[in-house]
Amino acid sequence: MSVEASTISVSTPARFFRQRYLFAFATQAELMNYLKTQMLEEEESRHQEILNDWLQLRTQVESLIQNELNYADTIQLTQIPDEHAPRLTEFASDPLFQRSFSGARTTFELVEVDKLVAAQRAVNLDFVDQLTASYSQAPTLAELLDICLSPRREKNPVQHLEVAPNQHIFTSPNADARFLGSFVKHLTAEDLDYPIGGIPAAAIISFVGYGCTTVNAIKVRGRLILNNGFHRVFALRSLGVTQVPMVIQHVNNPELELPPAIANLPTQYLIGVPRPVLIKDFFEPGFAITLKVRERVQMVAVSVNYAQHGVPL
Question: Is 291 within 8 Å of 38 (Cβ atoms)?
Answer without folding.
Answer: yes
